[in-house]
């Protein structure tokens, strides 16, 4: 697969990825290498990566506990201390090997340690391959609020090896699929139609589907690296989806949702809002809702869940001047950003979802 040119870096695929990595190590005089992993990728992915790295440099492994609940500033502080104790300097290289939690947090650690050291992302989940590792967003959660602390800073490269997907559960694969569905809905109607009958997808073509998803995200980010305008399109399904994810993360009586599971709900809700703002047709809404519900389990919302979710919307990063801003679809394959939505319509969307 041909590498994809992003803003000041490349996304490399499969065998080309490791050739690019080793070439980069030979051409740059790094002092040492630190590989950040979580407990899952340390066990299942690191043994594949280490034998492929061609270097005489000292390699140190830094591990933290897997899970969204550990994507916080406390974990960063621990890693900064470890880097300091192990002699990391401005010429060190950090390699982030893992899913979105690892690439987001590891990128933030690298971007802020000694005011910034080089880092490379090697995503190991479908979600991180098509979304989290590409585009330069780094950061951590603030309590239960998603991605409130962070910077935009691009890696030296992103290396996508789809063999890592063999380590994933079906639920993790579905979580990543949500972002691929989103890319079709906001940008490429033909790509969206690939997923209308999930049972007919040829998973031998998964590499091509991932490649197209990365292309779509990259084409949007290249137009607007710092999210001043069109990059906001990538937040379709995320305004409500992130609030739902945060609420389920903090609620002791709720089972935590994977990111993609929450975003799937968010896309249905925000498609309903798009319908009632006359941006999509009833037929398009039914198509979207039916397709997403054929893949994801229904999420139960009690009446007393909705208001706390709405209160979390005020923390969405797209908001400006205290106004909640949505990215809505304007027909399948097109987007309309900076859309204000009344609470009444949001409540109606939840009622429709529950019914």
Automatic annotation (TrEMBL):
Keywords: Cobalt, Lyase, Metal-binding, NAD, Nucleotide-binding, Zinc. Pfam families: DHQ_synthase, DHQS_C. Its cofactor is Co(2+); NAD(+); Zn(2+). Residues 62-174 form the 3-dehydroquinate synthase N-terminal domain. InterPro entries: Dehydroquinate_synthase, DHQ_synth_AroB, DHQ_synth_fam, DHQS/DOIS_N, DHQS_C. GO terms for cellular component: cytoplasm. One of its GO terms (biological process) is chorismate biosynthetic process. Its EC number is 4.2.3.4. Residues 176-319 form the 3-dehydroquinate synthase C-terminal domain. GO terms for molecular function: 3-dehydroquinate synthase activity; metal ion binding; nucleotide binding. Catalyzes the conversion of 3-deoxy-D-arabino-heptulosonate 7-phosphate (DAHP) to dehydroquinate (DHQ). This is 3-dehydroquinate synthase. The lineage of its organism: Bacteria, Pseudomonadati, Bacteroidota, Flavobacteriia, Flavobacteriales.
